[in-house]
Structures are given as structure tokens and as C-alpha cells.
Amino acid sequence: MAQLGLGFDDAPTGELHRLFFALWPDDALRPRIAATAASVVSEHAPGGRPLKPDRYHVTLQFLGDFCPLPSSLVEDAKAAAAAVRSPVFELSLDEVGSFRGANVWWLGSKHLPDGLRALFDALGRSLAQHRVPVKSSASFVPHLTVQRDVRRLIAPTPVPPLPWPVREFVLIDSQPGRGTPYEVIGRWPLG
């Protein structure tokens, strides 16, 4: 299949692409997330390695891993995203926790905002209507990973809230193993 004219044209056909929709913090919020993560890691010493701030995101819908990346899938995913109507909302990152088995620490919200659930559901419906398969879990546990390969888990623990006015969602192409930042290949406003 032909590859998209979005920076993929020169990519070798054997390159893995991980495609997902996400909430993407703005440049003002990223250093605040990093400072909170560093403070929690310093206090609780989980080991592992911090996630780089340019990779901070909250996954909404995971589309899968592709080699090569089908341009028709990207076009269909973009059409599905363009059809989503969902209100602006605020997400408060107010607790840190971990996932057993995944060995990560994350920042999340003690209370899931109605707007986030509405966006997740609307995007899921639109992807199904546009025949875009998803590999997301049926249970939605929004989180922003801050530390990987931890040796110690942590129960959900309150942290000073980081208010995040969510005004858009994005489509990300990640190329695992390359060490490159995620590439935003589409943005859609809320409201």
C-alpha cells in the first residue's frame, strides 16, 4: 500500500508504526507534569526510568501496530475523528498510581470527568461507524505514564492537582525502538 505524505514517504516498509488517539498536554503543562513526577519518584524511589515529557499523553483509543502503516487506515481514522462532537472539559491529574504487570507509574484523576467519558465513547462510536478497528480495552482507565520499568508499585496516592483544560485530541504515530518523539498526524478541537 502507498504510504501517506505525512513524513512516512521515506520510511522503510519494515518500520513499525503504533497508531493511537490521545489527549496531548500543551507545552505549559508538560514541565508541571515532569516536576510532579520527579517529586513523587524522589519521595517513593520506585526505580526504573522516567518517561520523557515530549511523550506525555493519555491514550483514548489504540488502533494497533502496523508494518507498513496503511494510508487508508489513517485516512479512515481521520474521517472518524472529524465526525466526533464532544465538549471541552477539565481533567485534573490529582493522583499517582501503578499498574501491576506493566511496571509503570502514572498520573491520573481520582474522578473521571464526564467530558472525558463522553469523548472516549463518541470516538469509539465514530471509529466503529467508519470501520476502523480498535485494539483498546473495553475498560477505560485514563492515565499518563511518567515512569517505566519500576521495581516497586504504589497504591493510588493523592498529589497536588494539575488542572488540564482539554480542548482537543490528537492522532499519534509512534515508531517504537527509534527513540524519536511521537508524531502528531492529526488534531481535532473539542467544543
From TrEMBL:
UniProt superkingdom: Bacteria
Motif (HXTX 2): 143-146
Record carries keyword Transferase: no
Major enzyme class: hydrolase
UniProt catalytic activity: a 3'-end 2',3'-cyclophospho-ribonucleotide-RNA + H2O = a 3'-end 2'-phospho-ribonucleotide-RNA + H(+)
Enzyme Commission designation: 3.1.4.58
Positions occupied by motif HXTX 1: 57-60
Keyword annotations: Hydrolase
GO molecular function, one term: RNA 2',3'-cyclic 3'-phosphodiesterase activity
InterPro entries assigned to the protein according to its UniProt record, in alphabetical order: Cyclic_Pdiesterase (IPR009097), RNA_CPDase (IPR004175)
SUPFAM superfamilies: LigT-like (SSF55144)
Active-site feature positions: H57 (proton donor), H143 (proton acceptor)
Free-text function comment from the UniProt entry: Hydrolyzes RNA 2',3'-cyclic phosphodiester to an RNA 2'-phosphomonoester.
Protein family membership: Belongs to the 2H phosphoesterase superfamily. ThpR family.
Protein name: RNA 2',3'-cyclic phosphodiesterase
Annotated organism of origin: Lysobacter soli
